[in-house]
Design a protein that fits this description.
Layout: E1 2-3, E2 6-9, E3 18-20, E4 24-25, E5 28-33, E6 44-47, E7 53-54, E8 76-78, E9 85-88, E10 91-94, E11 99-103, E12 110-112, E13 119-120, E14 136-138, E15 145-146, E16 163-164, E17 171-172, E18 182-185, E19 190-191, E20 199-202
Parallel strand pairs: 2-5, 3-6, 5-7, 6-8, 11-13, 12-14, 13-15, 15-17, 16-18, 17-19, 18-20
Antiparallel strand pairs: 1-2, 4-5, 9-10, 10-11
Length: 203
């Protein structure tokens, strides 16, 4: 598809075990991937250096955010010269690491969020292999916004005590945490898009 400033990849019909998404098609830069059709991709993929944005559902594995489906992709790699994103230990960030876009690590058990992270994007941790797998997250001291469904797939984060979010958090999206997760908040927080789920204690 043609989009502003380039081409958007929405599907793949081949059968290769490793797919390198091209930087250009017919001389036009590939700048975006996304849409449910791209779930037809199953191999490992290399994201091009021209990629500057993607649909929130580009790496989707669910028919909806309330039920798990098949984890559609293999390993994901990012071209080392991509100036827009940074991939570290299976997690995709913006280049300055202020935005956490997606966790590709299916088996993550503990995660220390860099203090540069201010925003966790929609459905960022929905690819975790098992809903009970992530046991602990150390939060960024500068975390401000947690978008819709960001941690909804993690049903037993901090199973024996509340997960205390940093005082910097100011906005929580719809179903941002599982209903089984108890969360403690400090200060004034805006609930975006309605009910955030989770069990919230606001001090």
């Amino acid at each position: 598809q043609n989009v502003d400033s380039g081409i958007r990849i929405v599907s793949y019909a081949g059968s290769k075990s490793f797919v390198k998404i091209p930087e250009q098609i017919n001389g036009i830069a590939v700048v975006e991937i996304g849409g449910s059709e791209i779930s037809s991709i199953h191999p490992a993929i290399l994201l091009p250096k021209t990629l500057s944005r993607f649909d929130p559902d580009a790496f989707d594995l669910m028919e909806d955010y309330g039920s798990v489906g098949d984890y559609w992709f293999g390993d994901v790699y990012l071209h080392e010269d991509n100036p827009y994103f940074k991939l570290e230990e299976g997690i995709l960030y913006s280049a300055d690491m202020s935005i956490l876009y997606f966790c590709f690590d299916r088996d993550i058990e503990e995660y220390k969020m860099p203090n540069t992270v201010e925003i966790v994007k929609k459905g960022a941790f929905r690819a975790v292999n098992d809903f009970d797998f992530v046991k602990k997250i150390t939060w960024s001291e500068n975390l401000s916004v947690i978008e819709d469904f960001a941690f909804f797939s993690i049903s037993r984060m901090y199973p024996n005590k509340p997960a205390r979010l940093p005082a910097s958090v100011r906005s929580l999206g719809l179903m941002s945490f599982s209903r089984k997760t108890e969360i403690e908040l400090d200060g004034e927080v805006e609930f975006l898009s309605g009910c955030p789920a989770g069990l919230f204690n606001i001090n």
